[in-house]
Design goal:
Helix content: 55-70%
Largest sheet: 2 strands, antiparallel
Radius of gyration: 32 Å
Order of helices and strands: HHHHHHEEHHHH
Number of domains: 2
CATH class of the largest domain: Mainly Alpha
């Protein structure tokens, strides 16, 4: 009995030792994992470039998996590049303008909504009525971001890219002229300069279309002001009739700027500003 008891006692001690060791090992392993996760998190916070590399690899892996499952190449960041917004998420005034423009110019309401939202944001910053900005865009290109006139005016606001290429540098270069938001920003800057030089909206529009040194602007300012008035009424909640419109690409109807002349007059400065 004594030998049997001794054996049973030894087995119990051995089992207890193994169990204790297992729990200690497990506890230490979890502790090590926890420390590893903590140090990894600290490293990612201290070294943002590591986090960025990790995100890129993760996105790449997800993209490969998506391609394997669907058989299609997907772009996980395409939504970030899309110039579109849900018109239902816009303030009531902006939504009304977006839907009106969408129906009149036969373009999708989502990209128009993004442009309307951006016009309101820029307009508030530079003190230009956003509906005026949108009116210029409507008359210039009919909201076609790829429009180009015969004299080289490009994009939504028909900016003369060759003359204003420096303004596109912060957007990545001259090809940003066909990026809707970049063209909008540059066009508003040019419009702001023209209004400042002319001293009035109507005069600024004449400068903008490149007719600063001409007797007439071909009715351009009148067209923009008429659309401006309509958009103001739409923004105020009024029912405004829509007539189907086509882009006029007005700069195409005007001759190029006059040859170089003594650069001291405001008209010359305005012509150079717009081309």
């Amino acid at each position: 009995m004594t030998a049997s008891n001794n054996m049973s006692s030894s087995l119990r001690q051995a089992t207890a030792a193994v169990t204790k060791g297992f729990f200690q090992l497990t506890h230490n392993s979890f502790a090590l994992i926890g420390l590893a996760v903590l140090f990894a998190a600290m490293a990612l916070v201290a070294r943002p470039e590591l986090r960025q590399v990790g995100e890129i690899k993760l996105f790449s892996w997800l993209q490969e998996r998506q391609q394997e499952v669907s058989g299609m190449v997907s772009d996980l960041v395409a939504i970030d590049r899309a110039t579109a917004a849900d018109p239902k998420e816009l303030p009531k005034q902006q939504a009304a303008v977006a839907f009106w423009l969408s129906k009149k110019y036969r373009v999708a309401p989502e990209p128009i909504s993004a442009l309307v939202s951006e016009a309101y944001s820029i307009g508030a910053r530079v003190k230009i009525d956003p509906t005026l900005i949108l009116a210029v865009m409507a008359v210039e290109s009919g909201f076609n971001p790829f429009a180009q006139s015969s004299v080289g005016a490009q994009g939504l606001m028909q900016v003369m890219t060759k003359i204003h290429s420096d303004k596109y540098q912060s957007f990545g270069g001259k090809f940003a002229a066909f990026d809707p938001l970049a063209n909008l920003h540059v066009g508003v800057k040019v419009l702001q300069d023209c209004i400042r030089m002319a001293g009035s909206v109507e005069g600024g529009l004449k400068y903008y279309v490149g007719a600063a040194n001409m007797e007439t602007d071909g009715g351009y300012a009148s067209k923009v002001m008429a659309e401006y008035t309509r958009l103001q009424q739409v923004a105020q909640g009024r029912a405004v009739p829509r007539a189907n419109a086509a882009p006029t690409l007005t700069k195409a109807t005007l001759p190029p700027p006059a040859p170089e002349a003594p650069a001291a007059t405001p008209d010359k400065a305005a012509t150079l500003a717009m081309g």
